[in-house]
Amino acid sequence: MITTSLRRMGDEPVAAFSARGGFRPPGQPSLADDTCPSGLDLFLVAEKGGLAPVLRTARPDALVCWAFAWRLPPEVLEIPRFGAINYHPSLLPRYRGPNPLAWTLRNGDSRFGVTWHRMGPQFDGGPILAQEATQVLDEDALGDVVPRLNVMALRMLPKVMRMLASGDAGEPQSEDGASQAPRFGDDYASIDWSRSAKSIHTQVRAWGFQLAALPGGGPIAELDGRMWRISETSLSDPGSGARRVECADGPLWVISSEPIE
Prior knowledge:
The chain contains six helices and ten strands; from the N terminus they run H-E-E-H-E-H-E-H-E-E-H-H-E-E-E-E. By secondary structure, the protein is of the alpha+beta class. The protein has a four-stranded mixed β-sheet with strand order 3-4-5-6. A hairpin with a 2-residue loop joins strand 7 and strand 8. Helix 4 runs antiparallel to helix 6. The protein starts with a helix and ends with a strand.
């Protein structure tokens, strides 16, 4: 995907790097011999310390980071002569970190965002090269939003690469409005049916949008004396056997759940 875009712009990718066993976004296959774009050397790196020596062998002019599993150390960022850039799915400086889409929903924001920024010592804190936003839709699922943001990011990439080649430093991020987007913790893992139906529905949706979700987690609720992990709800009756639950201000329908043994 990104390799094709770069080649269309006249740039020639020389290598692809992947963290062995690392996270990959939904719908994106892991890099392997059968999935790596043709003409590229593929490096599967086992630990951070192995990145810099291998990257030096590729001698890149620029480093383009897209959902890489690790935070890149300074010695890696110093290697490409035009610098390193990263695609981040939020309107930086809002939601720095691994979980921006889920926090966008949790906080009730009206827009998802895409940012290309220069990489530096601060996590997701480097100067901004380009940004775009798209509306949060009630019917959005993670499988809809990620491709939509990918299209936006690739559309912005030619401009970003021109800025990089020209030495444009980008716009420094302001700390006003800056926020972090860590993985959700226990404080947001339990569903309280005495809250509003909409807040619980938002909680369930937000958990489903975690890009860096770990096994287990939430949201967890008690129903009829048993604990359940709730994965989909609706504010209106969808039929098809959905379970109606009374909340503080009205009903919520549980569409998908699994018992916790």
